[in-house]
Design brief:
Order of helices and strands: HEEEEHEEHEE
Strand content: over 45%
Largest sheet: 8 strands, antiparallel
Structural class: alpha+beta
Number of strands: 8
Shape: globular
Radius of gyration: 14 Å
Distance between the termini: 6 Å
Length: 130
């Protein structure tokens, strides 16, 4: 899990895919944070992505660093604890302009049953499960 976290942080931006009915939806994300032994991401409950995850929590993440790319299949689990929100906002202080640990909008989610596959053009894929 730490390697996946570090790779996502190194990339800066990764892409999160959800499903809305029969239509895939993909958008850039930038949060990756380990808290309480789990890998978390963050969004706002008012966003369409939150609504899509609420209906179907299965997602896929994709990121590329110029040499290696990763695909992470996972189920997102909503963690509404204040401690999770505080930890995320401390890790990403720039989010404090838009989110608060005490608002009803900040949503922290952790990856469950994740399968991360690292790919390069020159070697076989490598899989990490967490």
């Amino acid at each position: 899990m730490q390697e996946v976290h570090d790779f996502l942080k190194k990339c800066g931006t990764y892409y999160l895919a959800t499903v809305e009915g029969d239509q895939p939806r993909v958008r850039p994300f930038g949060t990756a944070h380990i808290f309480d032994g789990k890998l978390y991401i963050q969004t706002g409950r008012s966003k369409n992505v939150s609504k899509q995850i609420g209906i179907n929590p299965k997602v896929e993440i994709c990121a590329y660093d110029g040499n290696t790319w990763i695909r992470v299949e996972a189920t997102l689990v909503d963690d509404n604890r204040r401690e999770a929100k505080v930890s995320m906002l401390e890790a990403y202080p720039s989010l404090k302009n838009m989110y608060s640990a005490d608002d009803n909008n900040t949503q922290t989610l952790y990856l469950k049953n994740a399968t991360a596959t690292f790919y390069t053009y020159s070697s076989a894929p490598r899989v990490i499960k967490f």
